């Protein structure tokens, strides 16, 4: 059995940090010993999250090295361009780091700077980071000391396209990802476009000219294809709290049994569920759980594969995936703290 790991969560007041706490407090090999917040240092965690009263008896602390000194594993649930300032010292001190932000996802530091608006402060660590999608990198994650957890959109899109690209069944130059997210994907900061009166009864595309997740998706799909891919990615904001629904289109270059392909590709994967032929997954069917549910269709028997891929953006798209990686890193059962199904309604 894996040894008990002392856990630090940097950025504990955001939605992803809250999900990490919710999951890790029930993990048999994890003990959360530090939860950081610059603005709430000194206040009880349970004041921010009343659902954790009687479960988490900690105060928020400032995010400095002394407060993380007793940790074996540190999770970063911080905005982009924050973790990279602290990760080098933590690795030097022998900590293992799981970063939920984008700081170490892109292998090209100049491309990262272009999309995130600032220079990377430790580009020498980018190659050291392992992309934290277990369905692609399970063995490498197990031996890593720095894991870059994928974004929520990339998780749904990559898992949806992977079997088709692996099998060489689609034109890699004309892939389309039409994806929707709930408002929790934008975090807790107050923004006019995310107010209830602005979001309710509305539905809009955004980032059409280019979204930060686009280079990440292209990078990983390109790895699968062993070549550059052509991808049109259009995200949308819908008036729900949580969830990602990705509708993916690929032009088939040959006839194949797509249902069998997907079932075979994900046979034995604990957190990918390929639905029966003709099914359509819904975001509410994964709410609160770490499952990615996928269905594959060929409308009218034509030459276009349509893949429907749904996840909870805060779980499989963030905190749950991070815990899944943590389980691999400490040689715990991969479903530890993640086995509960999603919540309905």
Characteristics of this structure?
345 residues; alpha/beta; Rossmann fold; Dihydrodipicolinate Reductase, domain 2; seven-stranded parallel sheet; seven-stranded mixed sheet; 10 helices; AGPR; N-acetyl-gamma-glutamyl-phosphate reductase; N-acetyl-gamma-glutamyl-phosphate reductase activity; AGPR_dimerisation_dom
Written account of the structure:
The chain is of the alpha/beta class and 345 residues long. It folds into 2 domains: 5-128, NAD(P)-binding Rossmann-like Domain (Rossmann fold, 3-Layer(aba) Sandwich), CATH 3.40.50; 153-313, Dihydrodipicolinate Reductase, domain 2 (2-Layer Sandwich), CATH 3.30.360. It has helices spanning 15-24, 45-48, 87-92, 109-116, 134-142, 152-166, 196-199, 213-225, 258-265, 315-329, and strands at residues 5-10, 30-36, 60-61, 73-76, 96-99, 130-131, 146-148, 175-181, 204-205, 231-237, 244-251, 272-274, 292-297, 304-311. A 7-stranded parallel sheet has the order 3-2-1-4-5-7-6. The protein has a 7-stranded mixed sheet with strand order 9-10-8-11-14-13-12. Helix 1 crosses helix 10. The protein is globular, with a radius of gyration of 20 Å. The mean pLDDT is 95.
